[in-house]
Amino acid sequence: MGERPLSHQQLAALLTRAQGGSEEAFAQLYRATYRAQWTQARLLLGSDALADEAVQESYIALYRNLQSISPPQVLVAYLNRTTFYVCQNLRRAETRHTRRSDGEERLAELPDLDRFAQPEERLADRERTERLAEGLAGLPARQRQALVLRYCQQLTIRQIAQVLGCSDSTVKRELRGGKAALHRLLGGVLPVFFPLGAALRASTAPPRRQLSRPAVGALAAGTAAVALGLAALPAPAIGEVRAEGQNGVARAVVSARGAKQVWLAAADGERYPLVEVAAGLYEGQPLPNGSYVAVAAGANGRQDRRELTVTQADERPPEIVESRGEGGLIALQLGDETGVDWAGCYLKGADGARIDPLCTQGETGYFDLSPGSYRVRVCDVLGNGGWSELTVSGQGDGG
To answer: Which residue, 201, 186, 209, is CA-closest to 48?
Structure first.
């Protein structure tokens, strides 16, 4: 049995109270959502200790960002997303080790919240969770991530594709492959016709280090004390934001006070960190053209934002200025304001063979070519590349 899950409306009401400063409401939020977050982390990481660490970071992030979660109904989605990305970071940090205090080690001695469950039920739940975790750990990373996002977080195919940076068809293929592998593994625990989604969502057996109510209250109180200390720090404030260009390279210049970190957030989710070059002055380059949001984050977790548009970056490949016969060779002159990168320039004839310049001088390359049509690969020092066409009408004559 255990505690009845709260509805999204009830969770939203608790979040609103927590945003108003109620520590008890935050503790209730923790108790109501911890189990599902821990299970997702356990399935992704395959380790109780790492799952504990991931969930701890997720709830610290939740506490620090309480005021920015709006509308309150998106709480579960926020926690799901935060836990997923925290797990991704922990998986990449191979050298990290679990750090626990004596007090945290004693949490293993605390009883499970679900005191009324039958021993057989608890054993079956734990066995199912362990088998699922083992099975997921043996899957390729993308299959594992797709399964957890689909069946634990209830994301759509399109949303999963956006998170994983792949196509819808790739997500569907990974889901089919992962489901087939898990059904084969779980044949001894669940019938093969048992829905995988139900199995994953049902695998919410309490972790061995489940927090008791006093421990939850202590955690909330301790976190609140830390938050009060952070709130006393100055809030970040962005002043001037501008984009500059030089030799085809664009850079951002941001002035900000009270900032611990400053970066640019692009529309595609890419983050471009800025470096403090003087007191309160931050710069970063190179930047592609586009729309950005300059973000200044303070030590207290607060942020200030300003929009920025960059148009100064040279994103055009070199152009063919002239082709002429010179000393029995074809001299191909390219033009680009940032300079030509001849290491990335070559020709291709009708047979597809690559033809490199015999020598180069400035923006001119010399080729030994027979009459015919050629494709010209051009590239500048900034990496902007493209293709052009060249026709040689006679030996030593450019067209």
So the answer is: 209
Q: What whole-number distance in Å separates Cα of residue 329 and Cα of residue 376? A: 16
Q: Strands 249-257 and 281-284, how do they pair?
A: antiparallel
Considering only 47-56, 150-159, 210-219, 388-397, which range has the smallest mean pLDDT? 210-219
Comparing 134-143, 294-303, 338-347, the range with the smallest average pLDDT is 134-143
Under a CB-based contact definition with an 8 Å cutoff, are residues 367 and 329 in contact? yes
At residue 154, the pLDDT reads 67
* CA angle in degrees (0–180, nearest 5) for 232-308-293: 50
- Could you write out the DSSP letters of every residue in 332-365? EEEE-TT-B-GGG-EEE-TT--EE--SEEETTEE
Q: What is the pLDDT of residues 252-266, one digit of tens each?
A: 999 998 888 899 998
Give 386's pLDDT tier (boundaries 50, 70, 90): very high
Q: What angle do CA 137, 139, 142 make, to 5 degrees?
A: 110
- Tell me the three state secondary structure of residue 302: coil
* Radius of gyration from C-alpha coordinates of the chain: 29
What is the C-alpha separation between 126 and 112, in angstroms, rounded? 12
Write out the E strands in 209-328: 237-246, 249-257, 261-266, 271-273, 275-278, 281-284, 290-297, 303-310, 319-326
**Among 338, 330, 335, 346, which residue's Cα sits nearest to residue 387?**
346
pTM above 0.70, yes or no: no
- Could you tell me the CA-to-CA distances from 162 to 150, 151, 269, 367 in Å, in that order? 13, 16, 10, 45
Q: Which residues contact 158 (CB under 8 A, 6 or more apart)?
A: 168
Q: Give Cβ neighbours of residue 346 (< 8 Å, ≥ 6 apart).
A: 354, 355, 356, 357, 376, 377
How far is the first Cα of the chain from the last one, in angstroms, to the nearest whole number? 83
Q: What is the DSSP letter of 149?
A: I
Per DSSP, 248 falls in state T
Q: Residue 145: is its pLDDT beyond 60? A: yes
**Is 11:33 a contact under the CB 8 Å cutoff?**
yes
User: Could you give the 3-state DSSP secondary structure of residue 304?
Assistant: strand
> Alpha helix locations (H) across 138-195?
141-147, 157-164, 168-185
